[in-house]
Amino acid sequence: MLFHRTQYAQGISKIFIQQRRIYTEIYQLEELQRLYDLLKHESLSKTHSLSKKMDPNGIFSNNELNLQKIQVYGFDFDYTLARYKSSLHSLIYDHAKEFLVKNLKYPDDLMNFCFRPGMGARGLHLDIKRGWLMKLDSYHNIQLGTVYRGMNAISAEEVIAAHNGTKLSIDIVGYLGKTSNMFQFVDIFSIPEITLLRDVTQYFIDNNIPFGSEYVFYDVTEAVTAFHISGMMHQIVGKDVKTYFEENNRLKSFLQRLHDANKQIFLITNSAYWYVNRGMTYLLGENWRDFFDVIICQARKPSFFGAEQRPFREIDVDNNSKSWNRVNKLEHGKVYVEGNLADLIEMTHWKGNDVLYIGDHIYGDLADLFLKYGWRTGAILEEVEEEINIINSESFQKTIQWLNVLQWLINHLQIIPGPEADALMKTWVAEREDEKAKSRDLFNPYFGSVFRTHTVPTYFHRRLARFADVYTSNVCNFLSYPLDYIFFPRRVALAHENVLPTPDINLLLMDTAHHAMRFETAHVEENDLFIIIFCTYLNRFNVNITRTLLPNLSEDE
């Protein structure tokens, strides 16, 4: 009898515990669902700024850089000192497609195509044999949803089957953007090339024309390269600088400030002198060469920075002819071609930490200088300004805030067992994917941001962080910083660290001001004077704090 009573008690206990567990799980699930509704409403209904807005014209640091230590400033020309209008992309596209039709006998229908912005992005990789354009993250993972053959999206299943997953080895990706079957489009000149590659591929697909994807890539590359190497692009742009060059009213002020501070300034470009002269004359005036201590054209970068030891040659700028005299020193006011970095260092005695070289190509301009010679480096990327404007937008900030909250909810949902929780999990994960796609499409509907996937940096940004101490959208943004400014990288929490809070400077200033106002002095007038002086100082940071502390003063006061 005792045995049966024990069994009965144990059975009742099991049922009670099981029922309590089920009740607890249902309660937790209901509470989490109510929390979801409340947080979603709160996240998406906010109208005020959700986070501090970034400066689209700021300079951003990957590595600490003290400008006071920089005595020598060097620059690339194209897309660094000189910025181009979007009309240049159309020009490259049109001449490349004409080359395909006339020289390589591609279908005449291609002549009806035109360049369309947004079809390409800097930093994309191409699987050459498959003809797949894709975006990789900093861990060599293919970002699913950003893989295209022509205009056709490649499904996640097909990508995973082709590569046995999403992660690519270093042998496939390469270290500096190129292997036998993988090519990375790194500079902004590649945007029309990507667009033409997609258009031609899609044309062949739509018209059932058999083709090898690698042949199309090689032909499009040949067409674009021919337009550059033949000198035709420079001839067209050089004759009509107003159509293709952007005016930059700040460039002269920037170079003048460096000159007045006794900084040495040099130019290293692959472009021919006559072309640089046309562009610089348009941007800076006839006496533009006075700004530069050393001018080197037709440098053949990146070979200039590598093992190649071609000697410097002086050119006669009047008839564009090379001198036969050996160059033993580099003189102000003269122009040189070819050469190599080893001779440049030997003749100038410039030391690595004293030199800041600024260019737009992270491999061709910056990699060797950073890795082998210890020069400080800066990257000019026009996309920075464009993307920061999107990041600052209310639509993006609301989307990202809700994504972060949704991820937090999913993390808590994962520990609740049961079929109801599993069903809810599928719903929330699907919503998370939709929100990720929404945030991506704000940048580019095909490839998203140049600099990040949803949670980690892109492969392009990883290379940028490796080879550039600082980066910005326009070289003239340096005008906003004094010449002794120190650029500090942001402290980023590692995966095993707590996220360190960034203080709200306005709140700290307000608390400090209120604390100051509580001090009692012998004379009220002295305290008022102190408050006014303190508010004058605060006004440099945030005028709204001054208005709050001194509400009775007029705007003029």
From TrEMBL:
Binds 1 Mg(2+) ion per subunit. Its cofactor is Mg(2+). Transmembrane segments: none annotated. GMP binds at residue 78. Pfam families: 5_nucleotid. The active site is at residues 76, 78. Mg(2+) binds at residues 76, 360. Gene3D superfamilies: HAD superfamily/HAD-like (3.40.50.1000). GO terms for molecular function: 5'-nucleotidase activity; metal ion binding. InterPro entries: HAD-like_sf (IPR036412), HAD-SF_hydro_IG_5-nucl (IPR008380), HAD_sf (IPR023214), Pur_nucleotidase (IPR016695). It comes from the Eukaryota. Keywords: Hydrolase, Magnesium, Metal-binding. PANTHER family: 5'-NUCLEOTIDASE DOMAIN-CONTAINING, FI20020P1. Belongs to the 5'(3')-deoxyribonucleotidase family. This is 5'-nucleotidase domain-containing protein 3.
